[in-house]
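In the previous chapter we treated chains in isolation. Here, by contrast, the input contains two separate entities that must be folded as one system, with a combined length of 833 residues.
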Amino acid sequence: MHINEFESAMKACRFCFMCRHLSAVGNVLFSESDTPRGRALLLDKASMNPEFLFSDAVVETVYRSDLAANCRFHCVSHYDENSLILAARRDIVEAGKAPEKVAAIAKKFQKDNEFKVEGKKADVLYFIDDYTLRQPEISAAFLKIAKAANVPVATITGGCIGKALRILGYVAEGKKDASTFAKKVAATGAKTLVVSNPAAYDALKNDFPAWGLKLSCKVMHSSEFIADLLKSKKLKAAAKKKKTPVYYLESDYLKNYNDNVSAPRAILEALGFEVKPFGTNNEESYSAGEGACVLLELNPELVSRLAKQVASRADNPKKDLILTASPYTRFVLEKETELKVASLEEAVAELL
Amino acid sequence: MLPSTTSYMFEMIRSELTDAVGANFVDIREADRFAHSVDYYWIPEMWHDRNMPNPQADVIVHPGTTEEVSKIMKIANTYKIPVVPWGGGSGSQGGALPIQGGILLDTKRLNQIEKIDTTSLTVTCGTGIIARHLEWECNKAGYSTMHLPASIACATIGGFLAHRGTGVLSTKWGKIEDMVMSLEVVLPTGEIIKTLPIPRHASGPDLTMMFLGSEGTLGVITKVTLKIHPQPESRKFRAYLFKTFDDAMDAGASLMRSRLRPCAIRLYDEEETRSHVKRVFGLEDISGAYLVFGFDGYEKIVDLEMEEAMKIMKKYDVQDLGSKGGDLWWENKYKFFYPPYMFHLPQAFGTLDTVATFSDIKNVYWAMKNTVNKNFPEARFIGHFSHWYEWGCMLYARFIFEKAPADPHEAAELYNRVWDLAIRAAIANGGVINEHHGVGLKLGRLMKELYGPAKPLILDKLKKELDPNNIMNPGKMGFGF
């Protein structure tokens, strides 16, 4: 079983409580099984009793994980409980035991996968993923920024580049979609591929190489791209005259998966925003399930609870401006809460 | 016990519980019943590791208010169903294990902070709040509970109250019982009581102290008011390497007797310095007994106290590791508890913590060490002294077998034998059965020896009066079924 490839995480996490305080799902459902320890304990039992892996108990718990990876980030030894969960999902799928809902979502991602390239051939290609597509103000803002910096950009729009399928446990299928995307990107001749969605960024930076897929261009998150434009003075944006307080929510994919936190904050500080600390700490996940990518489709009730938990951490929920680098998080918080939330792209574009 | 789940009576009772707390908060999921069957106690961990089934609760409830807890207790009493309170489940003594099935009362929904009183410097909150979350909220307001144990990430405040827990700064800021102002408690029969609003008075016996350390056997603590403190201007540490544990203990005791107020002192014996401190801190060529202490508060006072403490240390033949050596400990103080630094199966290990006066503590240490070494030559004995008082200190001793018998019954028998012998050695030399982890299931059988006639005459009678149906966490603390 694939879970046995992560035996060290299983054995380490099954009896350890040291990251319990960070379990977003555990903190809203209050269930012991929805913690890294609880899940590792369940999977440890499954490693001794393989049929247990396919029980309702385990399957439901495994697919409820938000995969924020803040436990791994926090752990002094960085045990990878996250990958253990993904391995469990893979085992469940490969055994033909994926829940109906999971299978239906996977089927949808495999079906709608035509990538469409628009715009003149350009060195910079901007990928508009599903969550960015649902919020056209994000891509509009990004394109406005690129135009203001005189950087020609072409766009590529489409379905799954493999991330969602991999998250669901459909690894081979995910690789197939990723391969299709890589070929399409190569055909554009672009030198730089920019994405707004940190999940897509992580897929391109980490999943693609793991699958042996080599992209023909450099991959950047939109925050890195914009930060570079500001640093090189290609983009001139009028900094706020008076320090404007904002709260910035870290993306789990940028921070916990890629240890990449500086670009968004550099942008905000350069533009005269006063970045105030959100909530009581910077360890908890405030992404409302970003790590699990398709959690909104899989478990909307859980995502609603996660979003409301984020809102409960805000100092002034109806007044504060919350910025995020994640289109998923922006979408969910706007849908489920009364928070005033915007993307980094929108915050920058507004100053042009 | 709850009727079998195949019986319609199970559904009748489940409906009553649902009526009390809401359908979303009555849980019979196999995953949760399983996850709640293992805490931090070695025996259920080992049992699981040997693929043996641990006793499970029949149903888990998550009450959100004190009134809901009261309703649950009344239902449990009506049907004589055991109720086991569970906070973070990180107890090492088996105190929250549902050994007789029944209802597991998970307190984590009782996590609201009611008030931070900046005039009296107190915080009032539900006992289901995870200690780290409470500390963060206090920090945001500019304060600290000063209760910073290694289990802060997982344990609830209620768990600390239940077993009289402690944190790394206890030497100055106290154990949890020193931090409590008042409690709200739901009695086993469902009545809600509040103890007096202040801890110091001459208004009768201290009810707060009666419930602190009762480990869920006398009721469910639902709310607490704790002291909080301004964040200190400065906190500084210094470490020393002594040639022997004896010298280091003398130095630590001198420091406490001087009535300087260190916020922390920690002394590791030679074996723990060599095997653990060295490994966790990544220090090379370190041998001897490692002693670290710190002071916190206004910087001028911290510097003055540190200067006086250093004068005390200079009286000994000692290597000064400086503030760098001390900061190393503070920055890594929790690292010992993460895998792979923490002991883990297939090892058999346990923390034989006890406490004694300075007059007795060395005797306690050597008695326990000699007992383990003589009776279990295959085991290692290491110890550190982590919580210090004006009159003595606690010994956080551990025994470690690299491998326990494969047969779980043999493993449990061996494990229990170590406790019996080592803890009795402690008691015989002026120690007690535990200092801050509690009694639980692990040490319940030793309560009679510790208390003598006070156990049946006072403790048992109190238990019987408050819990006539013996449903409140039965089988723990030596109270039996």
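The longest strand of chain B covers residues 348-357. Chain B touches chain A through 46 residues (CB under 8 Å). Compare these points with the single-chain example from earlier in the chapter.
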